[in-house]
Amino acid sequence: MNQPKIIISGGGTGGHVFPAIAIAGAIRSKYPDAQFLFVGANGKIEMDKVPAAGYDIVGLDIRGLQRNLSLANLKFPIRLIKSCWKARQIIKKFKPDVAVGVGGYASGPLLFMAAQQGIPCLIQEQNSYPGITNKLLASAAKKICVAYEGMEKYFEQSKLLLTGNPVRSEIVKMQVSRTAAFQHFGLSENKKTILIIGGSLGARTLNTSVLKDLNSLVIQDVQVIWQTGKLYYSTIVENVGSKLPSGVRIFEFISNMEMAYSAADIIISRAGAGTISELCLLAKPVILVPSPNVAEDHQTKNAMALVKKSAAVLVTDAAASNELINNCIDLLNDESKMKSLGNNISQLAIADAAEKIADEVMKLIK
Question: Is the entire prediction scored with pTM above 0.85?
Answer without folding.
Answer: no
